[in-house]
Known about the structure:
The chain has 132 residues and is mostly helical. It has one domain (6-122): DksA, coiled-coil domain (Four Helix Bundle (Hemerythrin (Met), subunit A)), CATH 1.20.120.910. It has helices spanning 6-42, 49-85, 100-105, 113-122.
Amino acid sequence: MTDLTPSELRKLTDKLTHRRGEVAAMIRAGAASAGHDSLRRMGGEVGDLGDESTALQQTDLNLAEMEGEVRELRAIDQALERIKEGTYGHCADCGCPIPYARLDAYPTAERCTPCQTRHEQVYGGRDVTPSL
Ligand SMILES: [Zn+2]
């Protein structure tokens, strides 16, 4: 059973699909600029150690940013997968329907607000996606 109307579900699917395109573009852009950096370094530009560590820090920063984007992309894919399976919009913990207003604000939400709050208390404020 689903508690979202077909038009609500379609709106959320559109939102997720659109956001997926944006995030994928950011990841591509990030990967391109990271690739460009390492290409330039390999291209024989020899700096002193200071330059090198600045360059590495910059790469770390890009990677950290990209990691967030990759995580979001994965969350979007999982949400789209749940839509396909027909489990979308139901709390992963208690199985109750997640209110449309919450899904509209967070289309990748996996839990209802009380369960999410409890989850964040247990896992220290981060939405931990099971890695297995
Ligand atoms: Zn719940």
